[in-house]
Write a structure and sequence with these properties.
By secondary structure, this protein is of the alpha/beta class. The chain contains 14 helices and 12 strands.
Length: 367
């Protein structure tokens, strides 16, 4: 087992990174209620709860949550228990909100899940389901970068130090035989940590030459003249890797399993509808983005971005373990202990009831 002090020191650096949002709850912005999120007449509260607080990002890679909110899936499943929402821009802020009890369940990327689990010595969160795979690309200025080897010496943005895309890019850099200091971002490639919201302006100004970014940021850059140089999915077996999973506070899971099961049921139903109705689902996700941020995505951005994301209930646990290994390789973690990070019991119960295949935890589930 690695030295706890060393792990905590590394994770403290990640946790101390600037929070990128302000919240009505102290951490994220409140999502406005949608017209479809009505409580059915005669509905009953689940587990006696007045509300369940759900967090997600304003990214298309969180499409399950966007659709679930917009189409009322969560509220329908929770009955008279109100589904309330908070929207985040960064993993650390959502983990902090989860730790503080400001949210109960959240959609989030693998790296903050790993960091949050390890930082609490495995005592606070659990991953309880999958949501999405893919939707991450290396996009570059074609006038400056014409091939993968041309990335050396250039300024490439990632959303945040230690976040999921940052870890993936640092790992890819190492695979090319190049060296970069993970903390400063300096080396054979300049890794410029840039908020997704300002990456398009940074690209237009020439302060970055490209970005390893999630959707819709990648497609926003393409709309500004950038070209897709690499789709991260091409680097993974079967072109699948976890980009978004579902986490819960362990205390909430223990005390309110029926509520957790209801949210998972809504998530499975949302994914089923998304995959059966891709165009309608794309429109619903975009409508919710407009409600949450005040601005919908243009078709030139929305269409290619949505197409690159696969929505799945499978948490793709083996790929999360690989992403943890990438963080270790980059020097951002020291052999985190991930045993018990998953509890897929309720998800598999829901999947069986829906007649769908169950999923596994790659040996990282609760014993």
């Amino acid at each position: 087992m690695p030295a706890k002090t060393s792990v905590r020191r590394t994770l403290a650096v990640l946790a101390a990174l600037p929070l990128l949002t302000l919240a009505a709850c102290g951490y994220g912005s409140e999502s406005k209620d949608t017209a479809t999120a009505k409580v059915a007449a005669g509905a009953q509260k689940i587990d006696g709860l007045d509300s369940v607080k759900i967090g997600y990002f304003g990214n298309l890679t969180h499409g399950t949550a966007l659709v679930g909110v917009n189409k009322g899936y969560f509220q329908k499943a929770l009955g008279a228990t109100k589904a309330s929402y908070a929207v985040f821009n960064a993993g650390p802020s959502e983990i902090e909100a989860l730790n503080a009890g400001s949210i109960d369940i959240g959609w989030i990327g693998p790296s903050p899940s790993i960091n949050g689990y390890t930082k609490s010595d495995g005592k606070n969160l659990r991953i309880i389901g999958g949501s999405a795979s893919g939707g991450v690309k290396l996009v570059v200025n074609p006038a400056k970068i014409k091939s993968l080897k041309d990335v050396k010496g250039k300024k490439i943005a990632t959303p945040q130090a230690g976040n999921t895309q940052d870890v993936a890019f640092l790992n890819w850099i190492a695979d090319q035989g190049w060296k970069v200091d993970a903390k400063s971002g300096k080396g054979d490639v300049s890794v410029v940590r840039t908020d997704n919201k300002i990456a398009p302006d940074a690209y237009k100004s020439g302060s970055i030459d490209g970005a390893w970014a999630p959707e819709p940021t990648a497609s926003k850059l393409v709309a500004e003249g950038a070209k897709v140089l690499l789709d991260e999915a091409s680097l993974w077996p079967d072109k699948q890797f976890v980009i978004t999973n579902i986490i819960v506070r362990q205390a909430f899971l223990k005390e309110h399993p029926k509520a957790v099961e209801a949210v998972l049921k809504a998530s499975v139903e949302a994914n089923k509808w998304i995959n059966a109705n891709p165009d309608q689902a794309k429109a619903a996700a975009n409508a919710q983005l407009a409600i949450d941020s005040g601005k919908a995505l243009k078709p030139a951005v929305l269409d290619p971005a949505w197409k690159s994301i696969r929505f799945t209930n499978n948490p793709l646990a083996a790929t999360l373990n690989t992403e943890a290994e990438h963080a270790v390789k980059a020097g951002l973690l020291e052999n985190p202990k991930l045993d018990g990070i998953y509890d897929l019991t309720l998800l598999n119960k829901v999947l069986k009831a829906e007649g769908e295949s169950t999923v596994d935890d790659a040996g990282l589930g609760v014993k």
